[in-house]
Design brief:
The complex is a heterodimer of chains A (107) and B (152). With 107 residues, chain A is α/β, with parallel strands linked by helices. Helix content of chain A is 48%, strand content 24%. Chain A is built from 4 helices and 6 strands. In chain A, the strands form 2 sheets. A 4-stranded parallel sheet of chain A has the order 1-3-5-6. The longest helix of chain A is centred in the first third of the chain and has 16 residues. The two termini of chain A are 15 Å apart. Chain B is α+β, with helices and mostly antiparallel strands. In chain B, strand 2 and strand 3 form a beta hairpin. The chains are: A alpha/beta (107), B alpha+beta (152). Chains A and B meet through helix 2 and helix 3 of A and helix 1, helix 2 and helix 4 of B.
Chain lengths: 107, 152
């Protein structure tokens, strides 16, 4: 596996509390030189607007350090929330982690 | 309209929770255990999301200066063609419509948070926030849908 890639799998409810934790964790990875972060949401059941806000802050932080952040395996609620807030155009979203891996191969 | 099956419509369920964000998982699982057979899947998910935003708004804003034990009351009513959610808080009187109008109209993709009200407006067909006679506020969220065809 590419040493510059890190996959994170949060679970349950992605609210402000979880999103803050995620942001800290990803901040550490990016500081350590990780270039590609994938948040695999297959175990995330629900996200609220504060969770989404936390993800946007994380995305900004990652981009500022010339790294990339992507999401994959969103359930219907997460997809609905991203579309409704027009955030689906801001994040790179993949069907699953295999599709994300494919983009790294072809990059 | 007569229903011969076990589903009783409309139905009304209520729940009382404390004023803390940690109640959210409990509220969501309670909501998900309600009878959703008459409600289209996407509508249910939108209502669940609106419920979460309404509850966290009550904790963060209406009950900002109240202690954790201050109750928040939730009531869900499912009818043949609509789903209504009511959330009562004991916070100060507040003009939600005025607040909503003061926010930028377009979706701000740079915004971090504080967009719960706008999200509620997009998720629902109707919503209101009114002062009740018992000095509480009631957030009403309404979603309409087409009746599901008979299963037999």
């Amino acid at each position: 596996m590419n040493s510059e890639v890190k996959v994170i799998q949060p679970s349950g409810i992605l609210d402000s509390l979880q999103a803050n934790e995620l942001r800290r964790e990803i901040g550490d990875f990016v500081s350590a030189g990780i270039k590609y972060i994938l948040i695999d949401c297959q175990n995330v059941e629900f996200m609220d607007s504060s969770g989404l806000g936390g993800l946007v802050m994380t995305l900004k932080m990652v981009r500022k350090q010339d790294a990339k952040l992507a999401l994959c395996s969103l359930n219907e609620q997460l997809r609905m929330l991203l579309e409704l807030t027009s955030m689906d155009s801001v994040f790179d979203v993949f069907q699953n982690s295999a599709e994300f891996d494919q983009t790294l191969v072809t990059a | 309209m007569q229903y011969s099956g076990v589903i009783s419509v409309p139905y009304k369920r209520d729940l009382r929770v404390n004023s803390k964000l940690e109640e959210l998982p409990y509220i969501l699982s309670w909501f998900n255990r309600l009878n959703k057979s008459l409600v289209p899947g996407l509508i249910w998910i939108q209502c669940q999301t609106a419920l979460a935003e309404g509850f966290t708004n009550a904790v963060r804003h209406a009950h900002k200066n109240q202690n954790v034990e201050t109750p928040i009351d939730i009531e869900v009513t499912v009818a043949e063609t609509s789903l209504q959610i009511r959330i009562w808080d004991q916070g100060p009187e507040f003009n939600l419509q005025k607040k909503l109008q003061s926010l930028p109209q377009a979706a701000d993709t740079n915004a971090f948070g504080g967009r719960g009200i706008q999200l509620i407006a997009r998720l629902t067909d109707d919503f209101s926030y009114t002062r009740t006679e018992s000095d509480r506020n009631c957030l009403l969220l309404v979603k309409h849908f087409l009746p599901s065809p008979p299963s037999s």
